[in-house]
Design brief:
The chain is mainly alpha-helical. The chain is 68% helix and 5% strand. The chain is built from 18 helices and 5 strands. A hairpin with a 2-residue loop joins strand 4 and strand 5. The longest helix is centred in the C-terminal third of the chain and has 34 residues. The protein is globular. The relative contact order is 0.13.
Length: 479
């Protein structure tokens, strides 16, 4: 396809049409959580909640700010990403507020910490910070290709972020996992931001090395095997993910980190052998660590026999938890259509009901149909990210969009699979839905980068003579 034909195809849908579509979808993305908020209030007290107007105005203002900035500074960006993320963020706020009203959880917090503090106001503040970062990405990053200049700086930065929880006095050990740091009284999960920074490094590195990595020295059982010296990068990343698992006992970040690299390797080289090697190495590493790491062993035992874990926890045996079994009961109680918003009993999950296990609350109150709808929304965000990767005109943008979309999808799979009993629990949080500042802020930044790549990909290409980025375009010209 000629470059002229490709340009006209990419820019076939004009900017005003895209933004008007986005505005209409944003209206639904605000109204749906607003009605859900009212539904919860009616179910709990029989009255419309007094904070409904403030909640609607807050969510609507955040959505409006995001839309105005996108309309002005990223007019050709994908019209679905912002409404989909807003809808998930709004529904998450509703469920977090719903759990705040639980007398059981309020009393539990008072027994453990001496007082109860509602989480919904904090989550709304984190959402505002996330939207601010989203806006900052679009305002400050005029072209995503500038990130290519910071390939190796990104590598160093990601390593620093991943190692921060191991620094004495800074890192925090929360229920056996060392994935948090404490700064100024706030808890931060650096791994949420590291996934974005490491994606920048992978994209820059693989863009340069992809031809060498795609070479095969021999064929074995239908698979093209890479050359021995080209196995170095994947072995290094594999070793790093294993070290994270060993020293931080963070199964989720380890899986996300390594899985994202394998996905980007496959996109860069189109070699199925990398996928096979990646799966084998991840399996070997996980089994090896589980053979001697107690925290990972306990996660595996809770996955294999959640009822036994529940009974041991109820008997007061230390080192066991009942949340895995309670989450499965929540899903079972919800059935196909759910008990109704505000009418479930997932607040019986004593720890992390609004963060790690928030999907169980959705499963009980909106049922299988509602959970499938939520997973479909996540699938749409991933699909739009991959569509952006296909539309990108430069290899760096293709790899970065594919890597961020892959990381997002892997995180959703790891969290949903753990809560539903498909894989062991990992301690990660559901993007946008779960309570937690690090998660919601980092994922809004991720969406901002995807929208910048999307805008660059679909914007009509200027003539080389008039382009201020002509030099950069020559460096990373499309192939």
């Amino acid at each position: 396809m000629s470059s002229t034909t490709q340009t006209s195809t990419i820019g076939a849908i004009g900017a005003p049409s895209r933004r008007n579509t986005e505005l209409a979808l944003l209206a639904f993305a605000v109204v749906i959580p607003l009605f859900a908020y009212m539904n919860v209030g009616l179910a709990l007290t029989g009255e419309v909640p007094t904070g409904m107007l403030g909640y609607g105005m807050g969510l609507g203002l955040l959505a409006a700010v995001g839309h105005i900035v996108v309309r002005k500074f990223a007019a050709y960006a994908d019209p679905l990403l912002l409404p989909l993320a807003t809808l998930l963020n709004g529904l998450g706020l509703v469920i977090i507020w719903r759990l705040d009203q639980s007398e059981r959880l309020q009393q539990l917090a008072k027994d453990q910490y001496g007082s109860f503090s509602p989480s919904a106001p904090n989550q709304l503040m984190y959402s505002a910070i996330g939207i601010a970062l989203f806006v900052g990405v679009l305002l400050l990053m005029k072209d995503h290709r500038v990130l290519q200049r910071y390939t190796y700086i990104s590598m160093v930065s990601s390593l620093v972020l991943l190692l921060l929880p191991l620094v004495p006095g800074l890192g925090m050990n929360v229920f056996g996992a060392k994935i948090w740091i404490s700064v100024g009284g706030f808890s931060i999960q650096p791994g949420e931001f590291a996934k974005i920074v490491i994606a920048v490094f992978f994209a820059g590195y693989l863009m340069v090395k992809r031809d060498a990595l795609a070479l095969a020295s021999r064929r074995f059982m239908g698979l093209y095997l890479p050359r021995g010296r080209d196995l170095g990068p994947i072995i290094v990343v594999w070793a790093m993910s294993i070290l994270i698992l060993v020293f931080e006992t963070d199964l989720g970040t380890s899986l996300l980190f390594f899985g994202m690299f394998v996905v980007m390797l496959y996109v860069a080289t189109e070699r199925t052998s990398w996928i096979i090697f990646g799966l084998l190495m991840s399996a070997v590493g996980a089994v090896g660590v589980a053979s001697f790491e107690p925290h990972v062993q306990s996660r595996v035992q809770a996955w294999l026999d959640p009822m036994r874990e529940y009974m041991l926890s109820r008997q007061g045996v230390p080192g066991h938890s009942e949340q895995a079994m309670q989450a499965l009961w929540s899903f079972g109680s919800g059935g196909v259509l759910g008990a109704g918003l505000g009418q479930g009993h997932s607040d019986l999950i004593k720890f992390a009901a609004n963060s790690d296990f928030v999907l169980a609350t959705f499963g009980e109150e909106i049922g299988l149909a509602g959970v499938m709808a939520i997973l479909l929304i996540y699938g749409l965000i991933t699909e739009r990210g991959l569509r952006t990767a296909l539309a990108a005109r430069d290899p760096f943008g293709k790899l970065l969009a594919a890597g961020l979309s892959g990381a997002f999808a892997i995180q959703v799979f790891v969290v949903a699979g753990g809560v539903m009993g498909l894989i062991p629990l990992t301690g990660m949080t559901m993007p946008f839905l779960a309570y937690g500042g690090s998660s919601v802020i980092a994922n809004w930044a991720l969406v901002g980068i995807l929208m910048r790549i999307s805008d660059t990909a679909r914007r009509p290409a200027p003539s080389p003579a008039a382009s201020p980025d002509a030099e950069m375009t020559q460096i990373v010209r499309p192939e």
